[in-house]
Amino acid sequence: MKAVKIVEDVYWVGVKDWNRRIFDSLIPLPEGTSYNAYLVVGREKTALIDTVNPGFERELEEKINEIVDVADIDYIVMNHAEPDHSGAIPYLLERNKKVILIATEKGANMAKAYYDVPDERIMIVKDGDTVSLGGKTLRFIEAPWLHWPETMFTYLVEDKILFPCDFFGAHLAGGFYDDDVPDLLTHAQRYFGEIMMPFSAMAKKALKKIEGLEIKIIAPSHGPIYRNPRRIIEAYKKWSSGETKEKVIIAYVSMWGANETMVRELAALLTAEGIDVKVYNLVSSDIGEIAKDLVDSRVIVLAAPTVLGGAHPLAIYAAYLVKALRPPAKYAVIMGSYGWHGRSKDSLLEVLKGSNIELLGSLEVRARPKNEDYEKLRRLALLIQEKVRGDAE
């Protein structure tokens, strides 16, 4: 792709990474991602907002050179120090001996630690500080823990464009503007679950901070640019406030069919009552999809056999992710099976300890579910239904 003009004298100069399939050695990227960087050209000075992932420095430079010589850029704004956004900083500082890096105080410390940026090439900004480029004014908004401690947003006053880096993002290479991707909010919800959900309290604070801004465009650092910003802002308000649906997520592992049988029965009972049920086999499921459905589920069900004195390792991993991602669900149900000693439940509860999720009920069966176990499943389904519908009221 070439550089793309967003509005007069504001350009996208980022990279579409169609082939990347994993992020942080953890998050699957089934549709790739993008590293969005933006060039703002004023009458007197020029600023680059964010850069790109290591390995794409030359592509970034070529796009910049379509607009201005990379050696003539005056500022690089580092909204976030993570390498997918700031990895090209050393490359650019080598090619431009005058450029100054703009960052928060914590960002400056990270720029020195990650990229060896010397003090004399850093400008530290605080909440509300501005920099004039000549007809283009950048205002900086501190937004810590979205999702690192140094993060900030940049607001282009005259054009009413918000550059929030990871906030409002989506891991998606396709589409350039939000209206190019009909199911963009699904991708955005997945991204929120993976990245922002653990920091929902900070997300609410950031949304409050930008409430008074007139925003015509939101230009995040991953995924499409929003020309209809209210859509993603309203979605983030719901997600960060913990607004949920009449929805249950079930994640399970089954070695010899017992847990899968119980999961299928429970899912059928709940679905028959009009409850939205999402079922994931942990052997083959995309954890990004699980994170997406954790965003607005009211009850989490984990089902796993006992293996070597504890729950199956994949279920332990899932329980750890639930604890780490801090979803809004208040209740959990644990199901399991065993041959000679049932310890699946205890090991899952040990992982979930301190997560503020209440155990609603449990069911462990020996070998395979019997008639009395199906009766217990029906009672569990009624209990789940009661909590799901009760929270709706």
Describe, in short, the structure shown.
This protein is of the alpha/beta class. It has helices at 57-67, 83-86, 89-95, 105-115, 184-196, 200-209, 229-240, 258-272, 287-294, 313-325, 344-352, 371-392, and strands spanning 4-7, 10-12, 15-17, 22-23, 27-28, 33-35, 38-41, 46-49, 75-77, 100-103, 122-124, 130-132, 137-142, 152-156, 161-163, 217-218, 247-252, 276-281, 299-307, 310-311, 331-338, 358-366.
List keywords for this structure.
393 residues; alpha/beta; Metallo-beta-lactamase, Chain A; 2 domains; seven-stranded mixed β-sheet; 22 strands; FMN binding
| Cα distance spanning the termini | 50 Å
Rg, nearest Å? 24 Å
> Regions with pLDDT < 50 over 5+ consecutive residues?
none
Number of strands: 22
Fraction in beta strands: 15-25%
The CATH superfamily of the largest domain is known as: Ribonuclease Z/Hydroxyacylglutathione hydrolase-like
Largest sheet data: 7 strands, mixed
**What is the count of structural domains?**
2
Number of helices: 12
Structural class, by secondary structure, is alpha/beta
- Strand order, sheet with most strands: 1-2-7-8-9-10-11
Report the mean per-residue pLDDT as an integer.
97
The appropriate CATH architecture of the largest domain is 4-Layer Sandwich
CATH topology (fold) name of the largest domain: Metallo-beta-lactamase, Chain A
The shape, in one word, is elongated
Helicity level: 25-40%
CATH level 1 class label of the largest domain: Alpha Beta
